[in-house]
Amino acid sequence: MPDPAEVDLIQRCQKGHEGAFRELMERYQRRTYWIAHNMLNNYDLAQDISQEAFIRVFRNLRNFDVKKNFYTWLYQIVVNLCIDHLRKMSHGRTVDLDEVGGLPDDEKRNPHEESGRAELRGRVQKTLDRLPPKYKAVIMLRDIQGFSCEEISEIVGCTNATTRWRLHRARKLFKALWTGKRVEAARDDDGDADLLQ
Amino acid sequence: MGCEDMKDLLALEAGGDAQPDERIAVESHIAVCPECARELTDYRQLRAALAELREGAVPSRTFERIRGQVGSAMKFTIVQRSTASWFVRAAAVLVVGVSVGFSSASIYRQVTQLRPAVEAEDGVADQDLEMEKGASNVSGRPYRTAAGARGFGIISPPSVLDPLRGGFTFRIDRTPEAKVNDSSKDGVYYLPRVESFPDPHEVDF
Of residues B83 and B141, which shows the higher confidence score? Predict the structure, then answer.
C-alpha cells in the first residue's frame, strides 16, 4: 500500500503544485539516476534518462492512480527508456569475451582497497553491460537495487514467475560471462539478442 | 534431484529467491555435493560484487541540472496546456455558433418549402393545402389551399425540443372576432395570428 504522506504529495502534484512535484523529484532523483546509470553505464545518459522520466511523469501524473505504487511506475518508465536506448545502441555491437576476468575475492581487494573496489566495480559493470537488456534490468533491480521479485514484476510489467525465470537466467549468464565461459549469441522469443551457454 | 536440475535453483537460492520447497531441496543437496555448494558460494560472491554498483560518486550538480531541466519542461508544458485549453474553448464557441447558424438556415428552408396536409378541427381529414405560388406562409401571410380556399395565419416551425414530431401547428381562432375580415362573398376566410399557447383551437398537420 502506498504511504499516505506520499499519496498526499502526489495528489498535490496532480492539482498542479510545482513545489510538490519538486519535492517528489528530490525524493526519487537519486535512485532514478542510479537505476539509469546501472543500465547505461554513462553519467550523461543517466542524467538525460532521469530528466526524461521525470518529464513523462509530470505530463502523465494527472492520470496516475494514487492507489498504486508511484515508485514502481517511475522506475518502470526509467527502465523502459533505458531498454529502448540499449536496443537502439545494440545494433552491430559485438561481445568481447576477453573484457572480463575471474571471480572477485578479498585477497585482490585488500592491498589497495579503494582502487581495488573501483576496479571491481568496473569489471562488474562491464560484465553487466554484456547482458541482454531485459536480463540486465532484472538482475540490476534485484541484486543491485534490492527490489523484491514482486516489485520487479510491477516495474518490468511481467508475472512473478517470469521475473524469477529471467532472474535465474540472468544470474547464470552473468556468472558465465564473469568466469569467461563460452557463450553464443542467439535470439530469444522477444527478438532480443540472448546469450546461450 | 541431480546436479543439473540443482544448478537452476542455485542461481535463485543465492539471492534468497527460491521457494520454500526449492530451498529445502537445495540445502539437502549441497550438504552432500561440494561442487554445487561451491557454485552457490560463487553466486553469492557475484551478488556481493553486483551490490558494489548500487551507488557511487555522482558528477557535481547532477541533480540540480536534472531538476532545472525538468522545471523548464514543466513550465513549457503548463504554457502548452493553457494555450491548448484556450484553443479548445475558442473552437467550441465557433462550432456552437456555426451549428446554430446552420440549424436556423435549415429550419427556415423547411418552413418556406412546406407543403402540409391539413386536418380540420372536427377531425375530418381535409384535402392537401397548396400554397399560392410565391406567397409566404410564415407569420400571418395570406395563402390559398389546393381547393381554392384562402387563409391568413401563422405556421409555427417544428419544435426544437421535439424534432421527431415533424409536423407544423396551424392555429385557428374560431371566435367571432376572428371573422372580422371575412369576405364571405368570394369564400375568403382569414385566420388571425394567435399569440398565446396552448391554444384550445389548434390543428396539427
Answer: B83
pLDDT at residue B161 is higher than 60: no
Residues in B whose CB is inside 8 Å of some CB of A read: 7-9, 11-12, 14-15, 17, 42-43, 45-56, 58-59, 62-63, 65-67, 69-71, 73-74, 77-78
- For CA atoms A62, A58, A9, A72, give the dihedral sign: positive
Q: What is the CATH number of the domain that holds A183?
A: 1.10.10.10
Residues A188, A108 within the same domain = yes
CA-based nearest residue in chain B for residue A163: B17
Looking at the structure, do residues A81 and A105 belong to the same domain, yes or no?
no
CB contact under 8 A, B58 and A43: yes
Q: pLDDT of B84-113, one tens digit each?
A: 777 888 888 899 989 998 888 888 877 766
> In terms of residue numbers, what domain contains A106?
91-196
A175 at interface of B, judged by CB pairs closer than 8 A: yes
B103 CA to chain A: closest CA distance, Å? 38
Q: Same domain, yes or no, for A95 and A84?
A: no
Q: Which of A28, A117, A168, A173 to mutate to test the interface with B (most CBs of B within 10 A)?
A: A168
Rounded to a whole number of angstroms, the CA Rg of chain B reads 45
Q: Are residues A140 and A119 in the same domain?
A: yes
> Can you read off the three cell numbers belonging to residue B142?
395570406
Same-domain pairing of A29 and A83: yes
Q: Are residues A60 and A139 in the same domain?
A: no
A146 φψ region: left (φ > 0), alpha (ψ -120 to 50), beta (else): left
Domain CATH number, residue A70: 1.10.1740.10
Q: Do A95 and A185 belong to one domain?
A: yes
Q: What are phi and psi of A64, to 5 degrees?
A: -75, 135
Residues in chain A: 197
Q: What is the ipTM of this complex?
A: 0.80
pLDDT tens column, A23-61: 999 999 999 999 999 999 999 999 999 999 999 999 999
Cβ of A149 within 8 Å of Cβ of B17? The answer is yes
Residue A82 shares a structural domain with residue A109: no
Q: What sign has the CA pseudo-torsion B90, B95, B96, B100?
A: positive
User: What would the grid cell of residue B6 be?
Assistant: 540443482
